[in-house]
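retry 2 of 3: previous attempt timed out while embedding tryptophan. Reduced batch size to 1 and resubmitted. Inputs unchanged:
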Amino acid sequence: MKKVLTGIKPTGIAHLGNYFGAIKPAIELSKNSEYQCYYFIADYHALTTVQNKEELYEYTYQIACTWLACGLDPEKVVLYKQSDVPQTFELSTILSNLTPKGLMNRAHAYKAKVEVNEEAGEDKDNGINMGLYCYPILMTADILLLDSDLVPVGIDQKQHIEIARDVAGYFNKKFGNTFKLPQELIAENVGVLVGVDGRKMSKSYGNTIPIFADEGKLKKLVNRIVTDSTAPDEPKTLDNTIFKLYKLFGTKQQTDEFAERLQKGISWGEAKSELFTLMNNYLSPMREKYNYLQSHREIVDEILKKGGEKARQIAQNTILKVRNAIGVVDIK
Ligand code: ADP
Ligand code: TRP
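retry 2 succeeded.
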């Protein structure tokens, strides 16, 4: 059985980009009985930016409830917190010794920050912590520790999986065949979802539509979506955020009919109202489940506890293999 693994950082409220780019494809995959899935909350990854006790705590529950409310079945999927698998941090230390520093210099999250610093005339490493710099190594440890074959992620994470594959390869070459080489799995039909302002939907841009926004907030956000200045009865092109979102929520038939109406010419106001209704129908059962779990955290705790135990067992087997491969003395 193939092993599928992915993680989400608890850095803020999950939005539709996270849902369509990462959560939904991962949950679809878990319905296939050929896959054993391991999905986790990457709480130590969040620490590069979330350095506030209450925030980390709340965001962690938010992501756990998000996975469950979006349809993750805890009987099939092992759902856990990264922090409950301490072997991750041992493997990360080991792997850092096999990772060329140059590879980390080229990792895109670090490189992007360096570029911002250079443009501002600052020291290139200004405000950059080692957590961010070594981020791909920690991620490699997550992936290799659970013996993953496939890693479903959004396109922006592709480079990280390539790094994991490279590092696994370096290790195998030096110490003998120990790790599988993981493969990324990108949801091709989603691409990058745009936010209400037309840029990539991202927590960092403040342009997101949260998955579980209440009805009133959802309506407001849909109304805020930027459109062009086409007059109400003029034909609309399909290259707009409203249609792109509609396509993700609607069936093929609904989408075709909506496309036809747009091309004939309905007002943006009407189009937004139709989009809102479609989204709200889709999202409201999930929102209810989310709110229920948020107020019954003992259910979530129980699931995470069991998941952590299962993940730790696999992790322990891997770490023993790794220790043995590198020559750590094992006193019985
Ligand atoms: P953010 O940019 O909001 O901080 P994250 O970096 O935490 O989002 O991303 C979590 C997951 O969601 C990743 O797998 C990422 O690829 C996916 N993702 C985030 N934003 C989008 C988007 N706008 N479109 C598609 N996928 C996205
Ligand atoms: N880096 C991923 C993100 O920013 C989250 C993550 C951490 C992850 N560890 C992982 C994803 C392992 C896949 C596999 O979205």
